Amino acid sequence: MSGPGPAAGTIAAARDPEVAALLPEARRTIRRVARTFALASRLLPREIREDTELLYLVLRTLDDLVDLEGARDPGAEARLAAVEAWAAGASPAAGGTAATPETRILGDLVRRHPALPRDAVTDFMAGMRQDLDGPRMETEADVDRYCYRVAGTVGRLMASILGATGDDADRAARALGMAMQRTNILRDVDEDLARGRVYLADETLRAHGLDHATLATGDRAGILRDGIARADGAYRAGMAGIRLLPHGRRSIRAAAVMYREILRQIERDGLGARRPWRSVVPRWRKAAIVLLAVVRPAGRG
């Protein structure tokens, strides 16, 4: 059975003072743009919570550097390239790319969590480049690949920070991240359409009598039911691995249940009958989910 080794989750290294100075910005960022996870992260031990906040700052910054129109600040390409070089093993001290806030944080995280998977950062960057190019999702396999790159990778990085090791934990973390991204896709159909983006598979749209031109006005109930079923399957696979986490079981369970609740809200909202629409889980429901995560035994998956 895969799981943590004897010292899994132990943080041996002190945080770099330059990186520690970025914590207030990291905390503000996660509270501003990731409120669901910010709420769930309160259940994490302080040191680990701060590491996840710093990781989120890196990933959010990279996402912001690659916006939908491809309009980037003059230094953005160099910062993206620096992260790609870091993930490939380059070191500024050894004559590699100049250090950036992102590579500084990543370097400190891997020093504190030596098993942090650099290949997940490489794959995340591939997802950022894919988004910049305007991805076309022809098949469900294309959607899965995209969801892995932009979110399954985040699950893998988070699982490592939480001390999980082994293939079973890695697969579950990947699945949970992908489930959350599929949820984003279903929630944001109209938002993405307004920006000229469609992240639903063309083959599945056709199966439900839709295409990019008719998605805004056609009957979306079938495509949303299909997407919800796929996301629910990924949640089941991902949440089954929560028991493998040495730290943060309650937090990750709360985040997963809150995010999965968006699917239920889409159903309650009529499966896209209202236009435009974006299903939002009420705050009181999120608070109830976190309360249940607190009182439920952490050992149950």
How does this structure look, described?
It is built from 14 helices and no strands. The model is unreliable at about 1-10 (pLDDT under 50). The protein is about 65% helix and about 0% strand. With about 300 residues, it is an all-alpha fold. It has helices at about 15-20, 25-35, 35-40, 45-65, 75-85, 100-110, 120-135, 140-160, 165-185, 190-195, 200-205, 220-240, 250-270, 285-295. Helix 8 (about 140-160) crosses helix 9 (about 165-185) and helix 9 packs antiparallel against helix 12 (about 220-240).
Strand content: under 5%
Please report the total strand number as a whole number: 0
**Euclidean distance between termini CA atoms:** 15 Å
Count of DSSP H/I helices: 14
Oligomer: single chain
CATH fold descriptor: Farnesyl Diphosphate Synthase
Q: Would you identify the CATH H-level superfamily?
A: Farnesyl Diphosphate Synthase
Report the major sheet: none
| Helix-strand sequence | HHHHHHHHHHHHHH
- The number of domains is 1
- Please tell me how large the radius of gyration is: 19 Å
Tell me what the CATH architecture is: Orthogonal Bundle
Shape: globular
Q: Approximately how much helix is present in the residues?
A: 55-70%
Uncertain runs are 1-9
Question: What would the average pLDDT be, to the nearest integer?
Answer: 87
**In CATH's first tier, which class applies?**
Mainly Alpha
Q: What structural class do the secondary elements suggest?
A: mainly alpha
